């Protein structure tokens, strides 16, 4: 069951969790301007942080819309290490969800125990931590419902043919990583623009004619024989719909599509 047993590095789908928390902590803001160069040098990191294009001077919401690595890294670096660790823990990353299915993987956030600026830059881009698809779906469920992380249920209730409830599984909250003001306000709008535009956005092909989808793309290099492969990737999309009144949160992961041109 890959949804709960396989782990992967989430890539840019982690950016909304960190950026929104920085907003909530007063370390930035949706309309605060930030300069996102094509290449951004992080002290102590050998390679610069690189974007696919120059985003330039934009409001911080645009960092999510255009998936700017340099912008996400700058915003995340404003938080201290404990705040970053707590953010990912509050969103349920690196621990089992408690879903009543066998062999659920925990994920792995042990690399967060000892961090420096270079490591924070990797985490801000969705590297150096391992998650399951279910963990990311639940995290985006928290973004969708106004900021509450819920424990997953397989069955809401067992009823008789006449409708009498024989057994029920109550809704159970696990954590409250975001305020409703942040989750339902500027963050939701930014994630809706990721799919629906206007302007340059990263997921226009996820657009639906039936309802508005909100979400975020993620791409990381696939680890092959202990090393990152230059062409093989793990591609994902986490989101929720309808954006204005969410009923569904989800994560889609594709292991190993090739970026090699045919």
Structure commentary:
The chain has 262 residues and is an alpha+beta fold. The protein is built from eight helices and eleven strands. The chain has helices at 2-5, 15-24, 60-65, 69-76, 81-90, 117-124, 133-145, 180-196; strands at 33-36, 39-40, 49-50, 56-59, 149-150, 157-159, 165-168, 173-175, 214-224, 227-241, 248-258. The strands form five sheets. The protein has a three-stranded antiparallel β-sheet. A two-stranded antiparallel sheet has the order 1-4. A two-stranded antiparallel sheet has the order 2-3. The longest helix is centred in the last third of the chain and has 17 residues, at 180-196. The mean pLDDT is 95.
How would the blueprint of this fold be written?
Blueprint: H1 2-5, H2 15-24, E1 33-36, E2 39-40, E3 49-50, E4 56-59, H3 60-65, H4 69-76, H5 81-90, H6 117-124, H7 133-145, E5 149-150, E6 157-159, E7 165-168, E8 173-175, H8 180-196, E9 214-224, E10 227-241, E11 248-258
Antiparallel strand pairs: 1-4, 2-3, 5-8, 6-7, 9-10, 10-11
